[in-house]
């Protein structure tokens, strides 16, 4: 009897699954009908940047010359899966061209980064419609690209560490910032797009940079489907501005806004903000609702107060189940390559927003830990590996005294290797040039 019931329930689940799958493919087909693609002739240029090809799929006529240019700091290859062409190692600034003489679909990838994929479709047609069954296999990619991928939504300029700086307006002596919590698609690395809940469309949320002594007003809009708040982690704020849902304030309901007002009293250093609702805190942080909060010295920047700091970078390490092991929401090779000139003094704001310890190790150079949780250490400690703990922030200082591409990565091997054994996850590098 029990066995028959199990068989019966399996059958019901199977039917339900089939029905759901059927619905999904129908929706995709309806959306695809509206999409058509220009077919290029003559020559086409594809950039390689951020460990991705600038165009996933390109449609060309016979005789078209396609040129790829590597604008990344690391070498890539443009390798055809069928063996039709192979650029071999394409160093920074180098190009590779191939003229397509036969109709067909040419898939290609980078041998060092198998997630980097692209396609050239060679056709006689002037316009490719997605109704054409020969091009249907590319539709899911195009559809996902059309989704609002997390790129920052309030005009935040992107910085070298790939974080976005949150702009502000001065109003009655207050620096006024706007944050919106909203669902977005986030690209962790080429080929890995996941759903995220983000501030202003990016994971981490935009970097808030203020000076010690500033009066700030931060207006938070909740465009999520559930209540949220924002907690100013490590900053000294009055109790009613603490942002702990159900303790210092009610959750901000969906569609509502809340204004936080405080004076920045904490010393110059690294802090952060993250959602802190009454319920679902684990889910909200896991989905990406956090960002860095950097306090700069009063009146001027670090560069003036500590003469010699030419470069200032913020790195947030995370191990969320949604994104995997990331630095600034990205997994190697999509993580930023941090530029420096030989002799530069570099300040790194290092923040662990994950659930695990991450011993971050620097190749080639030693750094000094100068602050922890924003406060200066009595004496800086020189090291090359710092074990970062969940919820803790660190300020590191070092001089770029050797030319090279120096890795900075978590030293737990599982956090920097994917299931195929490829380097992935919590890896970034400082590119020190003359
Ligand atoms: Cu780690």
What does this protein look like?
It is built from four helices and 29 strands. It is mainly beta and 434 residues long. It folds into two domains: 111 residues, Cupredoxins -  blue copper proteins (Immunoglobulin-like, Sandwich); 265 residues, Sandwich (Immunoglobulin-like), CATH 2.60.40. The strands form six sheets. A six-stranded mixed sheet has the order 5-7-8-3-1-9, with no helix packed on it. A six-stranded mixed sheet has the order 20-19-22-27-24-25. It is globular, with a radius of gyration of 24 Å. The chain starts with a helix and ends with a strand. The N terminus is likely disordered. The structure holds copper (II) ion.
């Amino acid at each position: 009897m029990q066995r028959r019931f199990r068989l019966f329930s399996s059958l019901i689940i199977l039917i339900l699954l089939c029905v759901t799958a059927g619905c999904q493919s129908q929706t995709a087909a309806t959306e695809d009908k509206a999409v058509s693609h220009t077919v290029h002739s003559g020559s086409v240029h594809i950039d390689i940047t951020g460990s991705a090809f600038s165009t996933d799929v390109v449609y060309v006529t016979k005789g078209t010359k396609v040129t790829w240019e590597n604008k990344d700091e690391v070498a890539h290859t443009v390798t055809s899966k069928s063996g039709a062409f192979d650029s071999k190692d394409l160093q920074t600034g180098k190009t590779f061209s191939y003229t397509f003489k036969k109709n067909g679909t040419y898939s290609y990838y980078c041998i060092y980064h198998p997630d980097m994929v692209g396609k050239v479709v060679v056709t006689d047609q002037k316009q490719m419609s997605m109704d054409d069954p020969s091009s249907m296999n590319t539709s899911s990619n195009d559809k996902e690209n059309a989704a609002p991928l997390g790129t920052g939504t309030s005009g935040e300029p992107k910085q070298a560490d790939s974080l976005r700086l949150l702009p502000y307006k001065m109003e009655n002596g207050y620096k006024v910032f706007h944050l919106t919590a909203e669902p977005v698609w986030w690209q962790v690395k080429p080929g890995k797009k996941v759903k995220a809940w983000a501030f202003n469309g990016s994971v981490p949320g935009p970097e808030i940079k203020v000076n010690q002594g500033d009066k700030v007003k931060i207006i938070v809009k909740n465009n999520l489907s559930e209540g949220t708040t924002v907690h100013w982690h490590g900053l000294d704020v009055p109790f009613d501005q603490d942002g702990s849902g159900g303790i210092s304030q009610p959750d901000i309901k969906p569609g509502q806004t809340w204004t936080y007002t405080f004076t920045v009293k904490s010393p110059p250093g690294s802090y952060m903000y993250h959602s802190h609702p009454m319920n679902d805190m684990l889910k909200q942080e896991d989905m990406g609702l956090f960002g860095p909060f950097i306090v700069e010295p009063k009146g001027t920047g670090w560069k003036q107060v500590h003469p010699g700091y030419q470069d200032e970078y913020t790195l947030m390490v995370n191990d969320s189940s949604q994104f995997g092991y990331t630095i600034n929401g990205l997994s190697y090779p999509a993580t930023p390559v941090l530029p420096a000139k030989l002799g530069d003094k570099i300040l790194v704001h290092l923040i662990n927003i994950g659930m695990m310890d991450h011993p971050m190790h620097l190749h080639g150079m030693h750094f000094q830990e100068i602050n922890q949780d924003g406060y200066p250490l009595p004496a800086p400690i020189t090291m090359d590996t710092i074990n970062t703990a969940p919820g803790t922030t660190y300020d590191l200082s070092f001089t770029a005294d050797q030319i090279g591409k120096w890795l900075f990565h978590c030293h737990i091997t599982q956090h920097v290797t994917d299931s195929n054994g490829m380097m992935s996850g919590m890896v970034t590098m400082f590119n020190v040039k003359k």
